[in-house]
C-alpha cells in the first residue's frame, strides 16, 4: 500500500478554505478515498446526522500529477477515516507559514500506548516546506479499510441514479437561505417540492398556519424534463403548488430544515455556480449537487470538482 | 364575520359587492411592524385579539391574571395601502407567535407585503412577491443549457405566502374604563426605564414606583432578598406631574418588565418617547410611541444626540408612529399609598 503526493497550492487552498470547513459542519469525521484518477471526501451516516456528503476531485486538482502515487492490492484504492479538525489544522498551518510545497504521505509508525506496549499505527504525514521553515506533522488516521469496506465506500459515494428533474437554486439562493432559516423557528420539518416547470416550493404547515415560499422560474435540468406549460400563474401560489403535485408536474418530500439549511449555507464556503436540487424517483432522498465554474473558461463548468449531498426524507 | 369566497390571488382582491367586507393592507416596512408587534410578546402561546376597522388595526392582549393588558394601534397612515370600506369591522383572535414567525419570514426580503382578511377559511392571508431576487449572480450561468420558465418576473423571483388561522376573539375589558382621576404622570426616554427595570431584576421582588412632589423625585425600587433603588435623574424626566406629596404603588416585576423591557431594536423601530401615568387607585399606564420608519443607519433615539430630537420630530411629522400601551394593576399587598 503506497500513497504519496505533493499538494498543489490551489488544492491546499480548496481544502482548507472551502471543502474541509464545509465537511466539518456536517460531522467531526470524514472518510477519504484515494484512487488513481479521483479523490473523494465522503461522509456517511457514520460521520453525520444522516446527510451523505461527497466531494469529488480529480487527482490533478489536488496533487501535482507527476508526484502522485496511489497503489494498493485492491484496485489501487485506499480509504480510511480521519478527524476533519486535524486535517484542517495542518493545512491551515501550512498556509499560515507560506509553505510552497506540502507533501503528503501515508506512513506506519510504531507508537507506545499508555500500557507500555508498542504498536504500529497508521498516520498521514504532512511535510510543509516554506521559505524559512519546514514543518512535519503526523495526523493519526483510522486503520485503512479492508477490500470489502473500500467497496462499500465506493458504492456509498454515488447517489445511485440521478433524479428526474433538478432545479438550480442559484438565482434565488440568498432568499432561499433566509427563508429556510426563518422557517426553522416555526417547525423542524418542511415540505420541499421541485416542479418541472421551474418552481421550487418550501412549505411549513400546522393546524393553524400554512407558510410557504415559491422560488419561481428556476433553470431546470435536464432540459428534457423542463415543461413551462405546467404552470398556471393566474392561480394563487398555494393552488399552483397543489395542482402541480396532483398532476405529477412536481415531486415533494419532507426534509429536516436544519439539514437543508446546512446544505444551503455550505454555498457561502464553496461558492458554486449552480446549486441543483432534485428529488429522487420514488421520493427516497433529496439530492443537492454543487457545480463549480471553470476558472479558466467563463462559460464552462469545472468537471474536475463536484460536491453533492444526499438528504434523508421524513414521512411527514 | 362573513365568509368570503375571495380567491387568494396575487393581487389585492377586487372590491366586488360580495367582497366589500374584505380588508386589504399593504405593508412596505415589514421589519418595523414585526418589531412593534414583538413588544406585545409575553409568551409562546399568546392569543391576541385583532380589531380592524376604518380607524386602524389594533392588537389587544390581556394577561391571565387580568392585572396586565396591552394594546397596539397601527393607524391607517402607517400602511402603504389601507382598503377598508366604511362600516366594516372585524374582530378575531390570532396566535401572536405565529404572526411573528410569519412576519420574520417576510421581513427577510425587502419587498412590500400584502395582508388581507378574511380569506376563504376566515384566515389572515399574507403575500409578498420579491422580484429583486431574480438579479442574483446565477443569471450569468444561464448560457449552459438551462431552461428558463417564462413569466414577467424573471428567474428566481420569490413569492412568499401564509395563511394564519383566526380564533375566537377574547373579550378584553379595557382597564382605562376604570381609570380614576387625578392622574400623576411623567415623560421619560423608554430606554432609560428599560435599563432601570432590568437592573431591578435581582432583588426578585415587586417594583415600587415612587413619585415625590417636593423636591421632585422619581424612584423605582425593589426589595426582595436585597434592596435596590434607582432614582431617575430629574433632568431626564419631563412633564412631571404629581398630584399628592407622594404617590407610591407596587407592581409585579414580571408585569412591569414586560411593559418596559420589550422595546424593539432602534434599527427596526425607534422608541420615540414613553409616557407613564398613574391613576388614583394605582393603575399604571405606560405608553410607548414607536417610530415605524426609522432612518436607515439611524442610531435610534435612546442617545443624547441632538439628532434624536430631529429624528423623532420627523417621524411624528410623517405620521409614522404606532402607539403601544400597557396597563398594569397595582399589586394588592403593598399597594396602598402611604
UniProtKB/TrEMBL annotation, chain A:
Keywords, sorted A to Z:
Nucleus
- Judging by the UniProt lineage, the source's domain of life is Eukaryota
**Any coiled-coil regions, as ranges:** none
Q: Which GO terms describe its cellular component?
A: checkpoint clamp complex; nucleolus; site of double-strand break
Its annotated compartments are: Nucleus
GO biological process annotation, one example = mitotic DNA replication checkpoint signaling
Q: Which family does it belong to?
A: Belongs to the HUS1 family.
**What is the protein name stated in its UniProt record?**
Checkpoint protein
Which lineage is the organism of this entry classified under, starting from the top rank? Eukaryota, Viridiplantae, Chlorophyta, core chlorophytes, Chlorophyceae
UniProtKB/TrEMBL annotation, chain B:
UniProt cross-references to InterPro entries, sorted A to Z: Rad1_Rec1_Rad17
**Where located?**
Nucleus
Positions of the UniProt region annotated as Disordered: 1-20
Q: Which species is the source of this protein? A: Edaphochlamys debaryana
Family according to the record: Belongs to the rad1 family.
Q: Name one GO biological process term.
A: DNA damage checkpoint signaling
Q: Does the keyword DNA repair apply?
A: yes
For this entry, the protein name equals Cell cycle checkpoint protein RAD1
Q: Which GO terms describe its cellular component?
A: checkpoint clamp complex
Please give the chief subcellular localization of this protein: nucleus
Q: Name one Pfam family in it.
A: Rad1
This protein's UniProt keywords: DNA damage, DNA repair, Nucleus
Q: Domain of life here? A: Eukaryota
Gene3D superfamilies (UniProt xref): 3.70.10.10
